Amino acid sequence: MAGATLRIAMIGTRGVPARYGGFETAVEEVGSRLAKRGHDVTVFCRPDPDGPGEEHLGMRRVELPIVRKRSLETLAHTALSVINPALRDVQVALVFNAANALLLPVIRARRIPVATHVDGLEWQRGKWGALGRRYYRLAERLAVRWSDDLIADARGIADYYRSEFDAATTMIAYGAPINHSPLADRLAPLGLEPDGYHLVVARFEPENHVREIVAGYAASGARLPLVVVGSAPYAEAYTARVEAAADDRVLLLGAIWDQDQLDQLYRHCRTYLHGHSVGGTNPSLLRAAGAGAYPIAYDVIFNREVIGHHGGYFTEPADVTAEIMAAEREPDRVRVAGAALQAAIRRYDWDDVTDGYEQLCHRLAARSPNPR
C-alpha cells in the first residue's frame, strides 16, 4: 500500500523469531512485511538465548526480562514494554492479547494510538482458575473501553464482541502458507514415511483436546501411528494425562523447532487432528490446510469457518476413533478433500493480512487516542 512510513510497536507476545503460537506467527509474518514496506517496526520480546540479536527480518527486537510464573508472565513483560524508552516516538502500538488491557492507559498516556488484538475466549481456557477467568472477563471489557480499535481474527470472535459488548472490531484473519513441496527427507529420522501417519501439533492444554485425540486414537484399530508434536510450560499434570492415554503406536515428540521438518510433517500426514476450541482462527490449522492435509477438527465455529466441508469433525474421543478409521479405509477421499481445502485456503493470504494491518495503522496514526 502507498502511504507515509510509520513507527509501529508490537507488544504483548513472546516476540520473534516465532517459536510458540499464533500471536508470534502473526507478529513475524506481518511485522516483517511491514518492515519490508519501509515501516519502522519494533517488537518487544522475551529473553531468547538463541535469538538473532537486535534485528530479525527487518524488525527491531527489544528483549526484556520475564517473571517465570504463568499468571504473571505476560502482564509483567507487557508492563516493562509499555514503559520502555524504545516506545518513545512510536506512532502506533499494536497490543496482542486482551489480557494486557490493564496496561493500555499507560500507552495512551504516552499519546500513542493503540489497537488490541483480542484473540479468542481466553477465559474459557482450562488452565485458569476462578480468579484468572474473572480477570480475563474484566480484561475484555477494559480492552473495549481503552483501545482505539479492536482486531478480531475470526467472525466468531467479532460476533462475540458485538453481542457481549456492542463493540465493533476490525476483522483481520491470519495467513496460510501454501506448501506443495515433495521433500520428505526430514521424516526418515523420525521413522516416518509420507502418507504413513496421523498428526497432532498443539500446546498441551485442556481446551486443545490433545488427551481426547490420543484416547480416541488409542481406542481405534488404526494401522498408521499418531505423531504428537507439542508441549507446554507449567503443564506437567496435563502432559501426564496425555501420556497415560497413549499406547505404543503414539509418538510423543515434544516441541519441534525445525520449521522445515514441521513443514514436511504437515505436508505428508494422512490426517491432521486439530483440537483447538477457544482461540479463534488458528495458525496451525491454516498451516496444515495450506500443506494439503486432511483435517479432523474439534467442532466449533472457528474451525468450521476455516475448513467448511473439506474435513471431519469431533466432539469426543469416539468421534476421533471413527474419523481416523474412515481416513485409513478411504485414502483417496482424504487426499482429494485435502487438495480441495488447500485450494480454498488461499483466501488466507499474509500479504492481504498485512494490507489490513497497514490500513489500520494509518487510520490510527491519523488521530490522537480517543475514548471508545
TrEMBL record:
Molecular function as annotated in GO: glycosyltransferase activity
Short name of one Pfam family: Glycos_transf_1
SUPFAM superfamilies tied to this protein: UDP-Glycosyltransferase/glycogen phosphorylase
Entry-linked InterPro entries: Glyco_trans_1, Glyco_trans_4-like_N
Alphabetized UniProt keyword annotations: Glycosyltransferase, Transferase
Domain (Glycosyltransferase subfamily 4-like N-terminal): residue spans on this chain: 21-163
Domain Glycosyl transferase family: 197-322
Entries under PANTHER family matching the protein: GLYCOSYLTRANSFERASE
Protein name: Glycosyltransferase involved in cell wall biosynthesis
UniProt organism field: Microlunatus parietis
